[in-house]
Amino acid sequence: MKYYLVAGEASGDLHASRLMAAIAKEDKAAEFRFYGGDLMASVGGVCVRHYREMAYMGFTEVITHLRPILNNLKTCKDDITAWQPHAVILVDYPSFNLKVARFVKEHLSIPVYYYISPKLWAWKEYRIKAIRRYVDTVYSILPFEVDFYRRHHYEVQYVGNPTVDELAVRPYADETFDGFIRAFDLPSKPVIALLAGSRKAEIRRNLPLMLEAAERFDDYQCVVAGAPGIAPDEYAGYLQGRQARVVYGATYRLLAQSRAALVTSGTATLETALLRVPQVVCYAMPGGNFAYTLFKHWLKVRFVSLVNLIADAEVVKELLVHHCTVQNIGHELEKLLCDDVERARIASGYAEVARRLGAPGAPERAAHDIVSRLQGGDR
Questions:
Q1: Which runs of E-coded beta strand occur in 92-241?
Q2: Residue 224 in contact with residue 184, Cβ under 8 Å?
Q3: Which secondary structure element, helix H or strand E, spans residue 356, and what is its range?
């Protein structure tokens, strides 16, 4: 059977590639065509458009790139129409993918599956109407999403979280601290990991605060997890005159050897939790108390970090907007480094998060369900 996938970001490329590999095991005759990236291409099939040509974020960037965005969308619709796949599989990236879903359901007799649900529970809840109208099945990777969708009279399939899978098969899982510091030529001092985000704006707002707060602890070294797509020159200005170092392509290795971490909200908070590293969530934004009030009003959930959302409790401290200061970060970091009771409390919360996420196998479960539906005539 023929499968058309649409992923618009680096994370989507990773998750979609794992799903494609699982589908290929279920369906030996599987053919793939996709919007995605190098990881998807490594599985096989035809890459119609690379996500680098699609990853526009924020209102200003979208407006200034409106023509290529519309061209990408038209090309995608035309290509799906011409190829006539047995299924269209959308991976996150809702602003683009929900438009694709609408087109497919209104103009083509092809089932639409959504792997990794849009975060409707956090914002833009109105998009649930589009999901109900245009998506046959949503494969959720966050356990609390099931109740959200049920409240909106839509049955969602929770398949597990792919981060659990990625950590289960990560390389260097047995690496020692000495092996790690030798590999990256680092000093023999305990590590504070800094994960300042994957976008330039996030790094610009958060990394200077993280560095200033963490470097006050003289007995530790600061190591920054270099984000894919962010050149070393981007970090150089922040690190000038400091002892901190950047390591690339080794975030899991870095976290596994760290005493504590400062993490900008996102999937990184979950990765940090599953590797059992105490963390402070840092998300600085301009605008002070006014922006914070709007931020809290805009969000429809109690927490920002996936760790706290999954646990439905404050497992880790979230320092948001104007609360994300050097003083506050330093205060919370000191507790993570020195307070064994606090570390034990966080460890207990992390164990509950892992329990709720369940066992590895998210892409395999989603693939099995998709292929079974298609073979059963769900077209």
A1: 112-115, 137-140, 157-158, 191-195, 221-226
A2: no
A3: helix 340-357
Determine contact, residues 259/337, Cβ cutoff 8 Å: yes
Query: Coil, helix or strand for 146?
Result: helix
Task: Select from 189, 182, 163, 180 the least CA-distant residue to 253.
Answer: 180
Q: What's the whole-model pTM score?
A: 0.87
Mark 6-16 as b/e (b = at least 16 C-beta within 10 Å).
bbbbbbbbbbb
DSSP 246: E
Q: What is the pLDDT of residues 230-287, one digit of tens each?
A: 889 999 999 999 999 999 999 999 999 999 999 997 889 999 999 999 999 999 877 6
187 shares a domain with 103 = no
Say how many CA atoms lie within 13 Å of 263 toward its Cβ: 27
CA 180 – CA 191 distance, rounded (Å): 11
Residue 22 DSSP class: H
177 in the same domain as 135: no
User: 322: domain CATH number?
Assistant: 3.40.50.2000
Other CB atoms within a 10 A radius of the CB of residue 220 amount to 19
